[in-house]
Amino acid sequence: MQTPTARTYRVLGVPLRTGSLYPGSENDAQAYRDAGLVARLGAAGCPATDEGDLAVPSYLPHHTIPPIRSWPGPRIVWDLVAERIGPWLAEPGQVPLLIGCDCSIVVGTAQALRRAGAEAIQVLYVDGDFDDAGPDPSRCQSAAAMAVWLLTRESPFWPGPRPRPSQVTVIGWSNPPRSPGAGVGSLSLADVRSAGARPAARAVLDAVPAAASILVHVDIDVMRVADMPAAYFPHTEGLGLSEAAELLGVLLRDPRVRIIEVSEYAALRDRDRRAAGQLVDLLVGTLAG
After folding, report:
1. What are the tens digits of pLDDT across the range 247-263?
2. Which residues lie below 8 Å from residue 231, measured CB to CB, with a gap of 6+?
3. pLDDT digit string (tens) for 129-171?
4. To 10 degrees, the CA torsion angle through 87, 1, 126, 227?
5. pLDDT exceeds 70 at position 1
6. Total structural domains in the chain?
7. Best exposed site among 132, 183, 223, 273 by fewest CB in 10 Å?
8. Can you list the pairs that 185-191 forms with residues at least 24 positions away whose Cβ atoms lie under 8 Å?
9. % of the chain residues with pLDDT over 90
10. How confident is the model at residue 43 (pLDDT cuts 50, 70, 90)?
11. What's the CATH code of the domain at 173?
């Protein structure tokens, strides 16, 4: 297995906001670049290349027709991102680092990992929400709010391949699941705090098979609004910055990690780019150790 120092991070912006409520948040990855993410990773001993942004078609629909907002826009982007990162996953030591995306991107990245030949995969879904809302014909929901449901359930919206529910663990949530009993692993904010962030992360990793390929998904709303006000849907309750650093410092440096994605940063909530700087500090600090 590769060691963290053997990795090269392929930083890719994913301007996926087809399900968003707020306009103007399609270029959020630029804030990470302006804060020096790639250069700072390199200076910290973590080789990284800026791969630009995923080319998202201009014709993607934007609507509020139930059950999924802007469908099939998200699915189109999932296929595109799987095609884009697939060649990197075929190379040892190349780790896609996705920024600027929404939570639904995990469906496409998990697909890419399976296509790359990883039969045993594990999705560690670090999020303030469980994101397991099922489709409801009476209301329109974003694909991001349904990400875990779409990732693990058979449906006409996504034919697969998909991980088993037991191959997904939602970590740090403060809003409870909407589809309980689905078999998805769970470690709530209260659980993380009870065990301590580092021991909780180690316990999660200890339960992952040694040969598994790990996808780490991070929604920044796992942090409380007082520490991270630039989350797309900020939470009153959540991890503090130092707690998030402890948790991610264990998860992200595991040698089995093959994909990292950081989602739901909203540049419109971060006019002075202070939060973007904090996120870059967090990523550099956790990846470099």
Report:
1. 999 999 999 999 999 99
2. 128, 219, 220, 221, 223, 225, 264, 265, 266, 269
3. 999 999 999 999 999 999 999 999 999 998 877 899 999 999 9
4. -100
5. no
6. 1
7. 183
8. 186/130, 189/128, 189/222, 189/237, 189/238, 189/239
9. 84
10. very high
11. 3.40.800.10
pTM (two decimals) = 0.96
The 10s digit of each residue's pLDDT in 210-247 is 999 999 999 999 999 999 999 998 999 999 999 999 99
- DSSP codes joined into one string, the chain: ---GGG-EEEEEE----TT-SSTT-TTTHHHHHHTTHHHHHHHTT--EEEEEE----TT------SSBTTTTHHHHHHHHHHHHHHHHHTSTTEEEEEEEE-TTHHHHHHHHHHHTT-SSEEEEEE-SS---PPP-TTS-B-TGGGHHHHHHS-BTTB------GGGEEEEEESSPPSSTTS--EEEEHHHHHHH-HHHHHHHHHHTS-TT-EEEEEEEGGGBBTTT-TTBSS-BSS-B-HHHHHHHHHHHTT-TTEEEEEEE-B-GGG-TT-HHHHHHHHHHHHHHH-
Residue with tokens 């939060």: 275
Residue 118 has pLDDT above 80, yes or no: no
How far apart CA 127 and CA 133 sit, in angstroms, is: 14
Instruction: Retrieve residue 205's tokens.
Output: 């990793």
Interatomic CA distance for residues 180 and 137, integer angstroms:
20
CB 232 within 8 A of CB 187: no
pLDDT at res. 24: 55
Containing domain of residue 64, as a range?
4-288
